[in-house]
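For the sake of transparency, this paper describes our internal protein records without simplification. Because each token names a local backbone shape, the row as a whole describes the fold. One such record is reproduced below, unchanged from the form in which we store it.
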Amino acid sequence: MTLVDGDEEQDPTVQLWLLYFSSQHCLFTFDPENALKFINRAIEHTPTVCDLFLLKAKIYQCMGNKETAAQLAEEARMLDTADRNLNFESAKYQLKKNNLDKAHDLMGLFSYEVWKGQELNVHEM
């Protein structure tokens, strides 16, 4: 915690989440360039938060850059490989760029059928 005005302490994550929500606001107001500036500053502040990379992936997806979006979603997934939602997000971005084999492999990471040696049934997932 840091001191503000000599006697109040402020949580350092306040700035992180202000940058994150500012980036979201810019994205929703169709200003992806400024959204990218805010999210890059947030990632500089705390480079270990998965949500930041997912928002950056969403920004690149909105800008039409599916390749970079998929790379960022995969980077978020690698920050926490036990998180099913991050695995889903990475697989979703792989599907958006039409990389079916990679998406199938990612979905298989959390499929019990694959662990039992059976074929992955995406429809049931």
Summary: The chain has one domain: 2-115. The two ends are 43 Å apart (CA to CA).
